[in-house]
Every structure is written in structure tokens, then in C-alpha cells.
């Protein structure tokens, strides 16, 4: 049971977390959130998304956010880019890492972007070349790697295939994502081992959702396979579009509490993250869904 | 990684879950809850507590509840008993299993019941003899086995000592409890292995709290040690008296979702538990804290 001694936590709250919020969140609030998270010690903050504002209105202020933040040396600021137009906007905004995406589920790919998995990844070839040319890190997110809302089971071979395609595009990092939170720990091992056969383990990350409360157990199972990069969202920002009112991304505070307990180094200050979580929850006018965040805040309040 | 093929889930919601509720819950509602849980397939339901109503007013209706429920053949109905007076009341009410208790933390024992761990367990000798005489199952709960709100760390030797004392009293089952939810998976293995050295593994159970969101990861780590009995509380009933507003007992729905995903047999119908969770949450006028419960209910609602 040799767990990694050190992990990288990628804080995805400002982008993946906030993108589904209905009420407009001002650029100021997003800037404050990104700055707080970078100051807390995250090596990587997913801060923006250069998609069409027609698709994701909440991300319309991405350039403003990127220009407004105080850049912290050593921190990688990432943004999602769906195409060359998005890449150019990300470039102009000074993004360090661009994130492209594809599904491991054929049904999900067809339903969401109306093309096959293979086609959807091929379309990123130009973005991938441009990222290399401009020396930007290139990350790829593999959605529905553990299950799909449309087709249910996702074959391991489909995971292997999409990881291979992203490797061939020259990706530096590949995220294996449980988009709908259906994984349980017994599923984590075979999926991660499949990804590990196709890509160097140091560049693979686990992106788990807590829809059914399984995220931390899944991260623990994933640590046992040696994966050492995990995504998390402060205050558990981000719901689940496939089950209204359900939980989405795993809460960063809960992940950090576990890593601290396991003696695994993250370089992140949990107390500062709890404060950032309370800050954004207040701004959104609702309670944080992080259990550790709420417990620590409650103990502080006395 | 040989996990148990079958586990016993002890549903503790009606007792451990509800005991801290401030508003009085009618005996009718408790009876309905216990009946729904027994019908869902739990082999063991913790239904009552024969403590002084001065200490725990919510449990004052315990005899009424026990007399009012429809006894389901094969289901073990348990009740907490602090002393002989409680035992006699439990006996009269037809309880199948009596639950006694002690802490693994000396500070907790002194603070809560004003005597040493050893003294507190000695006081149960008469209850233990009476349980044997009346052929009642005898279960013991070891609180603060993973950490204490007063002394912090709890030495493994203290866990070994209290398990040994309960074994000597003739207990059939011993619960290793993370009363304040501070454990992380790396702590679970040494504590459980300590208990396993002192008591037969088939009679040991894991009682985890989700205060910091760690419960499911801890249960997964505990499954890896071979422990095959787990406590859970429908809808996550039961807060944390040491951090107001924080989460308490792990939610049964989340535990069942994991066991189902792992292919571990429980004999319990998750859908029926989700319904019982929605029922009691409506009665309490608040949202369930079970993530799986809420996600499944949300999907059902459409």
C-alpha cells in the first residue's frame, strides 16, 4: 500500500465549479476567488473558459478575470478552450495551460457535440499544434471515463483509445473524469490501470464527482494505483447537470483533509481554502457543501 | 485486495441519528421509520435507547416505539442501555440486542461520565451477566477510537485495552467508532488491526462519522482489513455535538451505493432506503444530507 508521498491538487472551482451557476457572478468576485486560491498554495488553478458566451454565459468574463488577477509566480493558470478561436483568446489573456476535452463515451460525444469521439479529438489537432508553438501546457479532460448518463457502462478499451489519442496530440496531462459521479472504488482501479498503460502515470489525474458521495473513497482507491494529481473544487462548487440539486465536484477541503491525514504533501494551506470556500459561498448566498469546510468553520465560530 | 463478499449494515438512524434532535419526534414517526428500515432488509436496526429521559429527552418514547413496531422475523432490534434500570426496561420492551458503551479515550470518559474507562466498563458487568441470562445479544460501542475532542490522539494500546475488556464481559459484537469523524484512511488500518488482534473479526464493526467527509474512504480502507459490519444512518441523521451544523453519522444510502458498486452483498434495498430517508427528512422539515439519497431522489423526480 505505497501511496504517493506528494500530490498535485488542481483547483477547478473558478471554472468547472462556477460555470453552471445561473446568477451572474461578477468578474471582481471571480478575481478575488482565484487570487485567494493561488495564495492558498495551489500549483494549478483552473480560472477561465474561452467558450462561446452563448453556451456558457457565466464564463463570458474570462478575459477580464485573467487580466484582473494578480499572477503568482509558479502558479499555472488554466483555461478550457473548445477551438482555435478559444485558443487565441486564451493566448491573448495570458493563460499558462489550455484544456481540451473529449468523452470516453460515444453516446455522450454524439449527444453533446454531435460527432464521434475520434472526430472530436481530431478537431483539436490545430489547437494542440498552436499550444506547442506558443509553449503553453496542453491538458486534456476525458469525460465519462467511469460511466455515462446515456449509455451507462463505458468499456475500458474506449478509455484506452481516448487516452492514446490525446497522447498522440502531445498532451502534457490527461484527466480521467467521473463526470456523473457513478464510480465506486472497485471501478477506479481497472480504469486507472488502463490509463496508466497508455500514458505516463505522473501526467494522469483523477477528476472525481461526489454525486453519490463516493469521491473521497474513489480518490483513496486511485492513490493506491499511484495516480498523484487530483482535481477538486473549493466549497464543492458545481452541481450535477444530470441530477438537479445533486452534488457535483468533490470539495477541495475534504480532499485536503484526507491528504493531510494520510501525510501526503500538497503544499496547500487548508485553513486558507476553508476561508476561500466561506467567501465564495457567502457571495453565492448558500451554504458550502464541503463537509470538512463546514466542520472547520463551525469549530472556528465556537 | 480481498474485500468481504458480504457485509452486515446496522441501521442506527432511529437511535443514534435521532437522539440529538431538539424538536420532539412522535413515537408514530419513529415507528414508521423503524418499520420502513426493517422492510428495506436491514438485519439489524438500532431502534431505541433506555437512558434517562432527563439526559436524552428524544428517547423517552423508546418503550412505546418498541411496542408499536411490527416485528419482522430475522431482524435484530437493538437498544442502548446505560445500566441495569435501562436493561430491565429494554427487556420489558422486547429488545433483541442491548448495546453498552465505553470510550477509548480516558479524557472523554472522565469528561462524559466522570469515571475512568476501566471503571465505566466494570459497571456494565451486571448488565452483561443479565444479557447472557436472558439470551440477549450483547454489543459494545467503543467511542473515540480514532481521536478524541479533548485529548486529540488516542493510543492504539487504549483501543486494544477497551476491546479486551468488552471481550472479557462476553460481548458478541464490538463497534469501533470514529465519534468525531476525524479519521482518515491511513489511520483506519492500524486501529482496525489492533482491534482484530483482540477480538474475532466477524464480530467487529466500523462506525464512521462523516464530519470531515471521510467516512466512505474510511469504510473502504476498513473493508480492506476484512471488517464486515458497518453502521450507517439513513439520510445521514445525527449531527455532531462537537461542531454545530457539521455532518454526523455516515449516510446509509451512500454506504449502500458503494457496497452495490463493489459487488458486496448487503441484502438491503437501496431504493427503499432512499424512500425512508426522504420520509424522515420531510418529517424533520429539512433536506437529507445523503448525497446518494438526494441524487437518486432527484433523478426519480425527473
From TrEMBL, chains A, B:
Keywords from UniProt, A to Z, are: Lyase, Metal-binding
Q: Which PROSITE patterns match?
A: HMG_COA_LYASE, PYR_CT
Q: Which GO terms describe its biological process?
A: ketone body biosynthetic process; L-leucine catabolic process
| Domain called Pyruvate carboxyltransferase: residue spans | 7-274
Query: One Pfam family this chain carries?
Result: HMGL-like
- What InterPro entries is this protein classified in? Aldolase_TIM, HMG_CoA_lyase_AS, HMGL, PYR_CT
Give the pathway listed in the UniProt entry for this protein: Metabolic intermediate metabolism; (S)-3-hydroxy-3-methylglutaryl-CoA degradation; acetoacetate from (S)-3-hydroxy-3-methylglutaryl-CoA: step 1/1
Q: What EC number(s) does its UniProt record assign?
A: 4.1.3.4
Report the domain of life of the source organism: Bacteria
Catalysed reaction(s) here are:
(3S)-3-hydroxy-3-methylglutaryl-CoA = acetoacetate + acetyl-CoA
Q: Which GO terms describe its molecular function?
A: hydroxymethylglutaryl-CoA lyase activity; metal ion binding
In the record, the note on similarity to other proteins reads: Belongs to the HMG-CoA lyase family.
**The protein's name:** hydroxymethylglutaryl-CoA lyase
What's the source species for this entry?
A: Herbaspirillum seropedicae (strain SmR1)
Amino acid at each position: 500500500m505505497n501511496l504517493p508521498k506528494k500530490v498535485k491538487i488542481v483547483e477547478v472551482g473558478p471554472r468547472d465549479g462556477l460555470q453552471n451557476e445561473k446568477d451572474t457572478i461578477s468578474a471582481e468576485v471571480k478575481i478575488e476567488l482565484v487570487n485567494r486560491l493561488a495564495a492558498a498554495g495551489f500549483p494549478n488553478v483552473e480560472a477561465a473558459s474561452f467558450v462561446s458566451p452563448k453556451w456558457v454565459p457565466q464564463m463570458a468574463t474570462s478575459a477580464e478575470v485573467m487580466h484582473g488577477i494578480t499572477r503568482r509566480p509558479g502558479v499555472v493558470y488554466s483555461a478550457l478552450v473548445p477551438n482555435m478561436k478559444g485558443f487565441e483568446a486564451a493566448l491573448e489573456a495570458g493563460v499558462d495551460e489550455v484544456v481540451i476535452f473529449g468523452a470516453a463515451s460515444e453516446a455522450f460525444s454524439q449527444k453533446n457535440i454531435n460527432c464521434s469521439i475520434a472526430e472530436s479529438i481530431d478537431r483539436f489537432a490545430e489547437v494542440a499544434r498552436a499550444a506547442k508553438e506558443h509553449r503553453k501546457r496542453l491538458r486534456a479532460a476525458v469525460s465519462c471515463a467511469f460511466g455515462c448518463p446515456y449509455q451507462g457502462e463505458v468499456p475500458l478499451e474506449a478509455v484506452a483509445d481516448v487516452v492514446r489519442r490525446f497522447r498522440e496530440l502531445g498532451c502534457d496531462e490527461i484527466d480521467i473524469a467521473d463526470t456523473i459521479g457513478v464510480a465506486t472504488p472497485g471501478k477506479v482501479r481497472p480504469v486507472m490501470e488502463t490509463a496508466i498503460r497508455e500514458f505516463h502515470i505522473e501526467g494522469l489525474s483523477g477528476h472525481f464527482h461526489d454525486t453519490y458521495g463516493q469521491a473521497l473513497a474513489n480518490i483513496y482507491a486511485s492513490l493506491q494505483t499511484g495516480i498523484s494529481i487530483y482535481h477538486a473544487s473549493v466549497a464543492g462548487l458545481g452541481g450535477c447537470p444530470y441530477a438537479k440539486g445533486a452534488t457535483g465536484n468533490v470539495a477541495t477541503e475534504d480532499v485536503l483533509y484526507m491528504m493531510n491525514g494520510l501525510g501526503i504533501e500538497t503544499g496547500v494551506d487548508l485553513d486558507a481554502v476553508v476561508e476561500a470556500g466561506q467567501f465564495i459561498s457567502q457571495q453565492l448566498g448558500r451554504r458550502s457543501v464541503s463537509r470538512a469546510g463546514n466542520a472547520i468553520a463551525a469549530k472556528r465560530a465556537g
